[in-house]
Design goal:
alpha+beta, 2 helices, 5 strands, globular
Amino acid sequence: INRGSLFDVKEHRQEPIDALSSLNDCSLSDEHNWNRGLVSEKLVFEYDVRKLESGGLNHLPKREHIAENTDYDILSFDKIGAEVFIEIKSQESKGSAFFISRNEVELSREVEVQYWVYRVYGLKDNSDIISFYSLNGPVEKHFDLIPESFKACLK
């Protein structure tokens, strides 16, 4: 799959998540987002494993689901064995904006074609269908980046 290819998983069943049943409680909002992220990461990780195995690439080094303290969520490999960095962004709807860190943007610039953003959407507590698409290359090639926060240091 090359540069901005679009593909959807039309009937992937979401695993039940208790936190999604009480979205009206603001105290569960962070937990909901965290659980939504975990479901998205698991979906993309399993998809990536199946994609490489179906391409006869079982000989590649093991893919890693990293997610913490890195600028990507999954370290995988392409069809020739080169590292691929996958960042997963999950939203309830396909076109909604998302937050991305400066480090994630910089990594996408550094590694270019080795960087993929997977946008997972359709994660609602009453939905049985989760879809996603992927975009390849530097983040600003596909998205407008709008600065929304600042770091303040004492003068």
